[in-house]
Amino acid sequence: MVNTESQPSNFTGNEATPAKITTVLGAGAWGSTLAAVAERSDHHVRLWSRRGETPLESVIQDAEILLSAISMKGVKPMIDRVKAIGIPESTIIVTATKGLDTETAYTPSRLWQEAFPDHPIVVLSGPNLAKEIQNNLPAATVMASEDEAAAEAAQEMFACETFRVYINADPIGTELGGTLKNVIAIASGVCDGLHLGTNAKAALLTRALPEMIRIGTTLGASSETFFGLSGLGDLLATCDSPLSRNYQVGYGLAQGKTLEEILEHLEGTAEGVNTTQVLVRLARKEQIPVPISAQVYRLLKGKSTPQQAVEALMARELKAEFDDLFDD
Ligand SMILES: NC(=O)C1=CN([C@@H]2O[C@H](COP(=O)(O)OP(=O)(O)OC[C@H]3O[C@@H](n4cnc5c(N)ncnc54)[C@H](O)[C@@H]3O)[C@@H](O)[C@H]2O)C=CC1
Ligand SMILES: O=C(CO)COP(=O)(O)O
């Protein structure tokens, strides 16, 4: 059973067998899918929507796991509301948002952690196109936390026959993999929209990975994490699927549509649009080379055409494939 924004009544699953209580905040595509996944594992699940009638305080105070699947723009307001109500220190907070805060460039997990310093925080991220999971197709994901017991509790809560959940101890790397690949998914949509071929796509995704790693490691992530499900895995899924909203943005731009036209007809949120602005600002400040993201930025700002962006990437100064190739 999947609740959607257009059917805002909050549902409660498995009333008769209250194992552990999970409350999912945000009944958009991802929140409603995750609530349905947790239900498959026979847990007691509540899906809360700001458009529903259930008061927030009635669903968060006794939840063992509080999962936020709110789009980035709503994360800070949501944190303020939860903080004002208060939750027990034992509540595990899981964040499934893939974005960066415009003002601070913080990831959602950092925002949650600063507001709830004594709570275990877990990041959920992986190659997880909601529509496929809704259709019961097999998928895998990662629950990452510095608190191993919390990651295991979240793993147990969401794992089922069709949803395989791994844990890891690098929440920031796990979160940034899922966030930064949205920018590359826009570039990938452009690549396919311009029919540049398989070689171009392979080159784009392969060169995108070190770009993501450069940003990630500057922010404290482990480079290894980017070769896992939440990095390379999500890059492959999102950059090769018309189901991805970020990919759709790039594809539309390649067809000559304006960003405004694309966003007007887009179903749901394309976080990559905002993430690109935040990422490029951060890269400039830290002097991190991000050639692909910089071209996506120019494209979104209307400063170059898709064709010009491709030409600019191909015309870059020739260099060694790996920065440290001729060191020593
Ligand atoms: N749809 C997908 O396949 C996946 C999405 N994600 C991530 O999950 C997040 C949500 O994505 P979707 O569900 O697809 O987006 P969506 O646009 O379908 O839903 C966003 C949800 O956030 C809620 N929201 C926004 N501002 C709010 C506020 N101030 N207070 C309370 N609720 C607020 C909306 O009401 C809605 O329920 C994004 O960061 C996205 O990158 C992650 C993995 C898969
Ligand atoms: O993060 C996702 C898949 O893992 C969803 O991608 P989009 O937000 O581009 O639809």
Automatic annotation (TrEMBL):
GO terms for cellular component: cytosol. It comes from the Bacteria. The active site is at 181 (proton acceptor). It is found in: Cytoplasm. It holds the Pfam family NAD_Gly3P_dh_C. GO terms for molecular function: glycerol-3-phosphate dehydrogenase (NAD+) activity; glycerol-3-phosphate dehydrogenase (NADP+) activity; NAD binding. One of its GO terms (biological process) is carbohydrate metabolic process. Its main location: cytoplasm. Residues 170-311 form the Glycerol-3-phosphate dehydrogenase NAD-dependent C-terminal domain. Coiled coil: none annotated. Catalyzes the reduction of the glycolytic intermediate dihydroxyacetone phosphate (DHAP) to sn-glycerol 3-phosphate (G3P), the key precursor for phospholipid synthesis. Belongs to the NAD-dependent glycerol-3-phosphate dehydrogenase family. This is Glycerol-3-phosphate dehydrogenase [NAD(P)+].
